[in-house]
């Protein structure tokens, strides 16, 4: 049974329709890449899943119909979001950011700090004073503190230095290998997505136009839908 | 030790030493002034939880202050006239016991905060300010039109209420009692600020949608904060009424709400000892300049202007530095 199931999902920003029919299935423990050029509806889909934007169509997580739940209730079911642009709690320290989000489960502050040793070094520092990469690690750590069953990473490595990107990708791979957490990853780097994810879904103009195993993502498909 | 902690320690030490100084300098009235400042500080600590941590700009905190005051006034007036508060379905007598009065004040004011919060937290920004102000005015005019408890003239209580083991008529003992309560509430507040609830509330003030994304409901966090805030301000109201042995609708007025907010802003929003510093400065200015001119609040306005323009963290921020050092 799918952990997350989207069927014919549509959504609008006021009068302007952004999603015209997105289908997506994520099984327990599976890592899925959501791909597509800019403005094709990836972040909008994430906002719909997290109930930050109203949507029509089927939206089921772990057997629960999300379509009528407020966003905080959806998150409590086990949806963890690492949003585009990080958005840490700037005036709280690193450890306070983690404590504020904590819910009981496998992930606690010690485990997050073991995953990202840089955060342990900056424990008492204000989030606003961290580097971009450290803020990203904190955003991932904060989402992990909620002990999610599905972690959604929206452009988690955007604008970061190559060494920091590598650290984050290694952490993502470790999450999948060690905890079996399901992942939905949005990123521009095809190489890393191929390495970290089992399957991919491609969005084009608000529709899912291709989905399949990563191994099946041929250069032709990449050229047709992603402009690679 | 950070500068802010040193400042907090100095403020606390000053509050503890005031009675000794008053006795030494033979200025007993200073103790009454200090008691007034401590009670105002307590009311402002309450508001600071809603305003500083929760980001809730409440212009209706006089409701809780007044409810606390009237809880004292009503219970004590029935006790002094030997008439029961209600006779049916069961008899409830008045009381002159401070702990019982405090408990009633806390329950009543937190209940009012819950009701007001449930309605007003549906809005935010300027609408929240207006709704809290509207509730304040409703309660003010209700108190004015309630002749059973003095209406516009208010209620006088002849003898200060009692506390087991203390002579509350002795200004130093009553001051000590108020100061002990302030210290207790400050300790609870300090713990609250560092607790997961306090941190989540602070986070909800900064980025509410992010707090929702980690599974927390900002509105519920704010509601709990408002209830705690109302309870503390209500307790302060009961003490204020006991200090003056008098309660009147003035305690419920919007000017009172504004004054409590001024204490917080002058002292430092979201700073633990901000309300203490703010209330102290207010009472000091009121005492020193009140004798010079009845329009002394012009100078208060000037202080407020300077603090708002040049010190975002209030006086505590100006002296103690940033809220959290990086």
What does the overall shape of chain A look like?
Answer: globular
Give the terminus-to-terminus CA distance of chain A: 33 Å
Specify the biggest β-sheet of chain B. Answer: 2 strands, antiparallel
Oligomer: heterodimer
Radius of gyration of chain A: 17 Å
Strand content of chain B: under 5%
Helix content estimate of chain B: over 70%
Task: Look at the structure and give the mean pLDDT of chain A.
Answer: 93
The appropriate CATH architecture of the domain at 1-78 and 149-159 and 180-228 in chain A is 3-Layer(aba) Sandwich
What's the pLDDT, averaged over the residues of chain B? 94
Question: How would you name the CATH homologous superfamily of the domain at 1-78 and 149-159 and 180-228 in chain A?
Answer: P-loop containing nucleotide triphosphate hydrolases
Basic shape of chain B: globular
Plain-language structure description:
The complex is a heterodimer of chains A (228) and B (326). In chain A, helix 3 runs parallel beside helix 6 (132-145). Chain A has 228 residues and is α/β, with parallel strands linked by helices. The mean pLDDT of chain A is 93. Chain A has a domain at 1-78 and 149-159 and 180-228: P-loop containing nucleotide triphosphate hydrolases (Rossmann fold, 3-Layer(aba) Sandwich). Chain A contains nine helices and ten strands. In chain A, 36% of the residues lie in helices and 28% in strands. Chain A has a six-stranded mixed sheet with strand order 6-7-8-3-9-10, sandwiched between helices. Chain A has a four-stranded antiparallel sheet with strand order 2-1-4-5, with helices on one face. The longest helix of chain A has 18 residues, at 162-179. In chain A, a hairpin with a 2-residue loop joins strand 9 (199-204) and strand 10 (207-213). By secondary structure, chain B is mainly alpha-helical. Chain B has a domain at 37-253. Chain B has a two-stranded antiparallel sheet with strand order 1-2. In chain B, helix 2 crosses helix 11 (274-290). In chain B, 50% of the residues are buried. The chains are: A alpha/beta (228), B mainly alpha (326). At the A-B interface, helix 2, helix 3 and helix 6 of A face helix 7 and helix 8 of B.
């Amino acid at each position: 049974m799918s952990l997350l199931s989207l069927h014919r999902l549509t959504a609008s920003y006021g009068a302007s329709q952004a999603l015209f029919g997105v289908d997506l299935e994520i099984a327990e423990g599976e890592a899925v890449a959501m791909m597509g050029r800019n403005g094709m509806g990836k972040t909008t889909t994430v906002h719909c899943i997290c109930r930050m934007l109203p949507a029509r169509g089927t939206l089921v997580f772990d057997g629960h119909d999300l379509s009528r739940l407020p966003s905080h209730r959806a998150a409590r079911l086990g949806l963890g979001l690492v949003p585009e642009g990080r958005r840490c709690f700037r005036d709280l320290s690193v450890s306070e950011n983690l404590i504020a989000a904590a819910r009981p489960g496998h992930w606690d502050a010690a485990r997050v700090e073991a995953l990202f040793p840089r955060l342990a070094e900056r424990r008492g520092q204000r989030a606003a004073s961290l580097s971009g990469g450290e803020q990203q690690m904190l955003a991932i750590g904060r989402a992990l503190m909620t002990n999610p069953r599905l972690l959604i990473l929206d452009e988690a490595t955007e604008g970061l230095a190559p060494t920091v990107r590598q650290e984050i990708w290694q952490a993502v791979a470790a999450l999948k290998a060690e905890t079996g957490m399901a992942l939905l990853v949005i990123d521009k780097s095809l190489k890393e997505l191929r390495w970290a994810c089992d399957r991919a879904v491609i969005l084009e103009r608000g529709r899912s136009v291709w989905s399949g195993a990563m191994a099946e993502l041929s250069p032709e498909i990449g050229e047709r839908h992603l402009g690679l | 030790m950070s500068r802010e902690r040193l400042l907090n320690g100095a403020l606390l030490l000053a509050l503890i030493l005031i009675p000794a100084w008053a006795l030494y300098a033979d200025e007993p009235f200073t103790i009454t002034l200090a008691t007034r400042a401590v009670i105002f500080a307590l009311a402002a600590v309450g508001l600071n939880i809603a305003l500083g941590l929760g980001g809730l700009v409440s212009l209706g905190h006089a409701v809780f202050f007044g409810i606390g005051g009237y809880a004292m006034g009503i219970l004590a007036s029935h006790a002094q006239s030997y008439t029961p508060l209600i006779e049916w379905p069961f008899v409830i007598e008045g009381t002159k016991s401070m702990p019982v009065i405090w408990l009633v004040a806390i329950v009543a004011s937190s209940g009012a905060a819950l009701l007001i919060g449930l309605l007003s937290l549906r809005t935010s920004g300027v609408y929240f300010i207006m709704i809290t102000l509207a509730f304040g005015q409703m309660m003010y005019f209700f108190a004015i039109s309630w002749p059973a408890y003095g209406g516009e003239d208010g209620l006088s209580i002849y003898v200060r209420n009692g506390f087991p083991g203390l002579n509350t008529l002795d200004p130093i003992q009553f001051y000590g009692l108020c100061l002990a309560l302030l210290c207790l509430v400050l300790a609870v507040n300090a713990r609250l600020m560092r607790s997961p609830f306090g941190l989540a509330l602070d986070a909800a003030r900064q980025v509410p949608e992010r707090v929702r994304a980690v599974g927390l409901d900002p509105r519920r966090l704010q509601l709990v904060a408002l209830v705690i805030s109302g309870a503390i301000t209500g307790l302060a109201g009961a003490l204020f009424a006991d200090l003056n042995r008098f309660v009147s609708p003035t305690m419920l007025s919007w000017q009172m709400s504004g004054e409590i907010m001024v204490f917080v802003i002058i002292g430092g929003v979201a700073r633990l000892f901000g309300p203490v510093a703010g209330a102290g400065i207010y009472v000091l200015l009121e005492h020193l300049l009140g004798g010079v001119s009845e329009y002394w609040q012009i100078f208060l306005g000037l202080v407020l202007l300077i603090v708002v323009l040049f010190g975002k963290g209030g006086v505590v921020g100006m002296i103690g530095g940033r809220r959290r050092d990086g």
